[in-house]
Amino acid sequence: MKKTRVIFSPLGEEVRLRIRKMKLTFLMVFLVFASFGNSFSQVTLSLQFKKANLQEVLNSIEKQTNCVFLYKDNVLDNTREINADFQNAKFEDVLKAVCEQGNVDYEVRDRQIILKEKAAVPAPSSQQQTKKKSVTGKVMDDKGSTLPGTSVVVKGTTNGVITDANGNFTLLNVPENATLQFSFVGMKSQEATVAGKTVINVTMVDETVGLDDIIVVGYGTQKKVTVVGAITAISTQELRQSPTTNISNALAGRLPGLIVNQFSGGEPGVDQSTVFVRGMSTLGNQNPIVLVDGIERDFQYLNPEEVESFTILKDASATAVYGVRGANGVILVTTRRGKTVERANVTFKASTGISAPVKFPEYLGSADYALLYNEANLNDNPQTTKALFSKTQIENYRKAIGDNSDGLGYNINLFDYAFKPSMQQDYSLNIQGGTKTVKYFVLVGYMNQNGNYQHTNDGPKNTNAVFNRYNFRSNIDINITPDFYVKLNLGGRIQNRIAPGTTAARLITIAN
Known about the structure:
Elements (H helix, E strand, L loop, with lengths): L9 H30 L4 E9 L1 H11 L3 E3 L11 E9 H12 L1 E6 L2 E6 L8 H4 L2 E10 L9 E4 L5 E3 L5 E8 L3 E5 L6 E4 L8 E3 L9 E4 L2 E4 L7 E5 H4 L7 H4 L7 E4 L12 E4 L11 E4 L2 E2 L10 E7 L16 E6 L9 E11 L10 H15 L10 H8 L15 H5 L3 E13 L3 E12 L16 E16 L2 E15 L5 H8 L1
Parallel strand pairs: 2-5, 6-12, 18-21
Antiparallel strand pairs: 1-3, 4-5, 6-9, 7-8, 7-10, 10-11, 13-14, 15-20, 16-17, 18-19, 20-21, 22-23, 23-24, 24-25, 25-26
Helix pairs in contact: 7-8
């Protein structure tokens, strides 16, 4: 029997041990990667971003996980805004939502996530187009109250429903790529894309009161298409176009049926106009009722920046709620209020201008007056031989004061001597903003108008016509509960006027 002798070499045993270790190492690495690839379904993330770019979101995901994003430089579009709000969400859901907003495709390879340019979406087939489903949801206003009777329609079709008493709706046969339109009287219409969603909740905001949609009537608002009475309105934007110190003068020629006459002399602080609605048709008091935010008061010296709208009610049906007092018409002024905005709007306005009489009367000069007086006297008394004014006197009347060496010149333009252009200034600062709970509008304003008289003292005994006005307004709306709210309106005005002992209007009346 032949025997084989086996000799064990120490070197061969060491090689076999190393090979065995390498096999175990590769097996462990494979198991780790395989387990990580399957562990994505177990990973949860918490992210919250608002108007962030894609690069910032990817960096945050890498910090919370062991994944690595690989992509070319031209793949990411950092001009796109990413809005994300996830709390303990699955990794796959977060990745899908972020890449969808970033308009990129992705591929997961172990712990590496490769980002690619989004492939062109093929046109849906006829079978996909006909795929429909049901969508449910709830409609509320910005105060948290439900909106029953809201119209919900699939855009471009007649398929629609209205919300029930609790603001809920269920819409059947909705295509996957459809857009829903929500509309409610007094609210801004909104749209929402279905995009795979089966539940869509919408919050609607109030429609701004304006000329085309809503008109202030009596003590409320009404759609313009349903108004039967004669009503005319103007917005604050149109009032700002006239650089007048009195808001009544800015209304002249802007509203049909409104007659604005300025019988005053136009001096600072005495430049208000008399306002009539459809003329002077009654005996006694012919002025219309003026209500500012529902309270009867004067509106002449309000700051145009604090006015939201100006409405006049002209006929019997429009003024019915005011009874016999509305016979001369009603003027409704609504002031600005706060709005639900992300950031408060701060507006500062500064304007300055020159105020001067448009035209002075043209009177006959002193020399011409003397010459014509002599001629008239001669016509009345042909036998007279002596004129009242000599030729030397008439020539002196033609010369300005100081032209002659003997100082006998008397010609002077009294209007140029007595009047001068003056400056007027107007400054205002307002802040408008708010949330769903509290809304606010605050305004402070200052207006200064100097007089046109020359040769007056600027000290404590100044007799020039000077007018200063200070305006303040604060309108606050507080929603305590969905059915209970509080409104606080504060408005004030301080006027400081300096003037001579009489006014130009009174002097004109005396002269006439």
